[in-house]
Amino acid sequence: MIEDKLKKTAIFTGIFVALSLSIMFYRAATKSVMIAEAGDAYKTNVGDIRQYDLRFDKPDKDSEEGVLVIPLESGVTSDNIQFVEKHVRHQFVLYINGKTPDFYSNNSVISDLECIESGTYAPLNDKGMVCLTFELDGLYQNETSLGDGEITVSFNKTDYESENVVVIDPVDEIGVQMIPYIKTALGNDDIILYFTTLDDHLAGDEEVMGLIKDSQADFYIQLGVDDTRESDSGIRTYYNDRFFIRGFGNVQLADKLEMNLAKAAECNALGLAAADESNQKLSYSVVPSAFATIGNINNRVDLERLGKDSYIEKCAEGLAEGIRTSFSINSPIVDEPESDGK
């Protein structure tokens, strides 16, 4: 069902300009720098391009121990660097717009980190644009800084038991378009967000279940559009009715998301519904889970809304408020009495 809906959504939304993902900022110890998260201009299927193994050297200075140090060509600045965290694949990816495509065939990266299983580089053009991909042995939070002619990256394990964690799974193009707005809406909250995808590559069932397990997620939320009868217009949220969770469970999460989405988007709340059995990722999830749809692609009014950035932004803000409300009731940090979420 989701695959068919993705194809149909792509047809209707193909005329709209894809939104670049939000920019994240990292501050070096000596100066302010900006390393941006990769937007649409940098999204390339590197799997179709020849990749080469990076050479790794051991650190010879104290400052190089326990981190990954990536050399840069002279003249490369933060404006020429973009990154992507592919959480479901345990990958850290850098796009570097350099000057020569074979720079990393002649220059080694430096690291003694056991969490890095391998590294490759792929020249994307003959002008110096390269993609560096590092395979990690698990799920990590990273901190990145730009120094004098090099990038330094540290990878840190998180104590997820003491954190609020949400896995967000965009299941179609509209879901992907919501990502930067969600990041902005929750940017100042003490909530860790993991996205199953940042582009049109949808994560598989096992990848999603692995991410939920690795991150010890508190909630799993699918995002996208509905494909139902033409007369339905508004917000509808589906829940997992095959796995019962005591206290704050699937129905309660779905209810809070729908209520806040409809309020923020100023449109109808169509009510909750049990998810179709074909939605296996939702069916297999053992944490509170819901599929929030922000419009029906068969309805003219909804289709018009889905083409407006302002509507996507309002929905993201509503989703963020729904997540906050849910954590205020069922927080792993604040010990509050259990509630049925109503």
Q: Kindly name the structural category.
A: alpha/beta
Low-pLDDT stretches: 8-34, 40-44, 332-342
Tally of helical segments: 9
Number of strands: 17
Anisotropy-based shape = elongated
Q: What does the oligomeric state look like here?
A: single chain
Rg result: 21 Å
Largest sheet: 6 strands, mixed
Strand order of the largest sheet: 1-5-6-9-8-2
Mean pLDDT: 85
Report helical residue fraction. 25-40%
- Percent in strands: 25-35%
Tell me the distance between the termini.
30 Å
The SSE order reads HEEEEEEHEEEEEEHHEHEEHEHEHH
Can you describe this structure?
The protein is an alpha/beta fold and 342 residues long. It has 9 helices and 17 strands. The protein has helices spanning 2-13, 103-106, 173-177, 179-185, 205-215, 250-265, 280-284, 300-306, 309-329; strands spanning 36-37, 52-53, 56-57, 68-71, 81-86, 91-97, 109-111, 116-123, 129-136, 141-146, 150-156, 164-170, 191-195, 219-226, 235-239, 269-274, 289-296. The strands form 3 sheets. A 6-stranded mixed sheet has the order 1-5-6-9-8-2, with no helix packed on it. Strands 13-12-14-17-15-16 form a 6-stranded mixed sheet, sandwiched between helices. Helix 4 crosses helix 9 (309-329) and helix 6 (250-265) runs antiparallel to helix 9 (309-329). The longest helix has 21 residues, at 309-329. The radius of gyration is 21 Å and the shape is elongated. Residues 8-34, 40-44 and 332-342 have low confidence and may be disordered.
